[in-house]
Amino acid sequence: MSPPASVGRLPAASNSEQVLLEAPPHEGARAVPPSDSDAADAIDRSFHAALARLTGGVSPAALALAFADWQLHLLASPGKQASLAGQAMQNAFQFVDSMVPRHATFQPWTVTRPLENDRRFSSSDWELPSFNLSAQAFLLTEQWWHSATTGIHGLSRSNAAIVDFALRQCLDTVAPTNFAIGNPEVLRKIMETGGGNFVYGLHNWIEDWQAVLAGSKLRSDQKFVVGKDVAVTPGKVVYRNELIELIQYSPTTPTVRPEPVLIVPAWIMKYYILDLSERNSLVRFLVENGFTVFMISWKNPTSEYRNFSLEDYRELGVDAAIAAINSLRPGQAIHAAGYCLGGTLLSIAAARLGRERPDCLRTVTLLAAQTDFTEAGELTLFINESQVAFLEDMMWRQGVLGTAQMAGAFQMLRTNDLLWSRVVRDYLVGERAVPSDLMSWNADATRMPYQMHSDYLRRLFLDNDLAEGRYQADGKPVALSDLHMPMFVVGTLRDHVSPWKSTYKINLLAHADITFVLASGGHNAGIVAPPGEQGHSYQVLSKKAQDPYLGADEWIERAPSHEGSWWTEWTRFLAVHSGQPVPALLPASAQREDGPLADAPGAYVLEQ
User: Fold this and answer.
1) 407 vs 398: which has the higher pLDDT
2) How much is the CA Rg of the chain, to the nearest whole Å?
3) Is the dihedral of CA 350, 351, 352, 358 positive or negative?
4) Peptide bond into 583 cis (omega under 30)
5) For 29-52, what is the mean pLDDT?
6) How far is Cα 73 from Cα 80, in angstroms, rounded to an integer?
7) C-alpha 404: how far from its chain's center?
8) pLDDT at 18
């Protein structure tokens, strides 16, 4: 099957670059930006866009409404006020009592201790008396403010979560770990270096600000070069349109499974999260296990792409890639896999194909991907009508959601890990973290078009159209119950972007045999879990389409645990649903006289 005329064609080779499959320019988007003819609307949008530059894209109105809701309900709850006063007195009494010596040696963490995922106080120096008491006082304060924002009768859960999140950000700013005089690790470094750590820290700070002002990456994020240190699995770009490049990787085994694997990454990230260094490349692992792998590499859009919609991403992304693979591997069903938002888009495309071409996809794999957004984690704190409208006005002015806004949003979700710990290490301790391929990838941010991101926020997060049957593709409703092919779904235990219980909801929506895997780690580290690397584990349990539904809490009790990487579980799943191995073929472009578009990793991934 050849790619549809509106998606791909076979043009003649250019002077400097030879072409296998290249698509004509997109002939326009469906969505039209708001008209500037309405002067009042344009003034409001411009004002909001200017304000967003000062607030980092956070809507002041949404924040004010949440705090007003909290304060009014707290004022009208004398019982809650009395409970908070009692808790404050009890905390004070316990804290003072802990300072009374009862043992020959000081006993740390007698009143409270950090949560398991709070690594700020993990150093043994924090068990020294003065520093430990300081840490406990801070943790008690955090707990009290959390109690003050939760459990208030009548308070909206979403507003309570916003207030709790905002106050936690404020408290994290004044944590004792962030100050030289209150951080024993910094004080120890001062004694070791005679204060030289501050000289090194100042040098790091100046170096970072020079990079920021120049609009370039921080020096510590430049250690891994795309195509040289990461994204190095050999392959060819075999198809290109204005939104994607499709990479086919070269086989390394004499035989391969006949069904190709198509991977759809999210466009909020560069695809090479799945093809990092040789030791932790999922792509290389699949190739070495006898699979023909295709990867979508998304264009990093500029303001010219402002009107590209979510439907354009489906048609020019997933649908175009499937059509191209069908033309290169006629008659072969595809193992399709999607990561994060790429998995959401794949589920839309797969449900549509499940109705129209049920034999097109052999299996569907969703990696940390949500299809129901009612419990979509802390990202939903930024998703309400006021916040979405504010972001739309900011993007309307820019044409895209910029890399700074994207990176800032994820930093806000994990300020301790992604912001304050780095500030302390780089500027107070005066040491740079050992560069890693994952950190370098994390700094390689992308932009998102105005219309697409608006569709994504409104139709998926705000209105939950996909799970509730209102999402339309090609003018027809998409029903996830049309997913009948075997599915392999991976959630990660500490995922702050796609909570595993949210990804698990596919069991309520799809009418398919589903193997669900719960991997250790978070949204990225839980997916990039190569075999042989220590610390990985997972639980797995399969169900048939006709089996009764098993709740998430019951599932985690029943599912057996395994040490090691879930990657091996996935290759076993793919092998079970694949044909017998056949002789391996080089990427299709290598067999043509006109040659490939480019070698992997292609051109789009290099765009900044």
Assistant:
1) 398
2) 26
3) positive
4) no
5) 73
6) 10
7) 15
8) 36
279 token code pair? 């030791």
Amino acid occupying residue 99: M
For 202-230, how does the pLDDT look when each residue is reduced to its tens digit (9 = 90+)? Answer: 999 999 888 878 766 666 556 789 999 99
Q: Look at strands 537-543 and 514-519 and give their pairing.
A: antiparallel
The more confidently predicted of residues 323 and 8 is: 323
Outline where DSSP puts E strands in 387-519. 400-401, 448-449, 472-473, 476-477, 487-492, 514-519
Amino acid (one-letter) located at 175: A
β 472-473/561-563 pair status: unpaired
d(CA 453, CA 60): 20
Say which residue, 40 or 256, is predicted with more confidence. 256
Q: What is the pLDDT of residue 436?
A: 86
Q: Taking phi first (over 0 means left), then psi (-120 to 50 degrees means alpha), and beta for anything else, what does residue 469 get?
A: left
Is residue 11 predicted with pLDDT exceeding 90?
no
Classify each residue of 576-607 as buried b or exposed e, where b means 16 or more C-beta atoms within 10 Å of its C-beta.
ebbeeeeebeebbbeeeeeebbbebbbebbee
Calpha distance 304→448 (Å, rounded):
11
Cα separation, 323 vs 149, in Å, equals 51
Model confidence band, residue 99 (pLDDT cutoffs 50, 70, 90): confident
Range 554-559, long-range pairs (CB < 8 A, 24+ positions):
555/504, 555/516, 556/518, 559/516, 559/518
Task: Kindly provide the b/e burial profile for residues 441-461, where b requires at least 16 CB atoms within 10 angstroms of the residue's own CB.
Answer: bbebbbbbbbbbbbbbbbbbb
Query: Structure tokens of 361?
Result: 């996809």
Residue in this structure with the two tokens 């569709």, named with its chain if needed: 455
Residue written as token pair 């107070």: 428
CB atoms within 10 A of CB 302: 12
Using alpha carbons, select from 206, 268, 211, 226 the residue that is nearest to residue 460: 268
Residues 314 and 310: their CA atoms lie apart, in Å, by 6
Question: pTM for the full model?
Answer: 0.89
Residue 17, pLDDT score: 35
Q: Give φ, ψ of 328 to 5 degrees.
A: -85, -30
- DSSP label of 583: E
Token reading at 370: 């949500």
What positions carry a catalytic annotation?
A: 340
Phi, psi for 26 (deg, rounded to 5) = -65, 130
| 159 vs 381: CA distance, rounded Å | 8
The identity of residue 572, as a single letter, is R
Q: Which of 186-200, 409-423, 479-493 has the lowest mean pLDDT?
A: 409-423
User: pLDDT at position 40, please?
Assistant: 85
Q: Give the distance from CA 47 to its chain's centroid.
A: 30
Amino acid at 278: E
Question: Which pLDDT does position 217 carry in this prediction?
Answer: 65
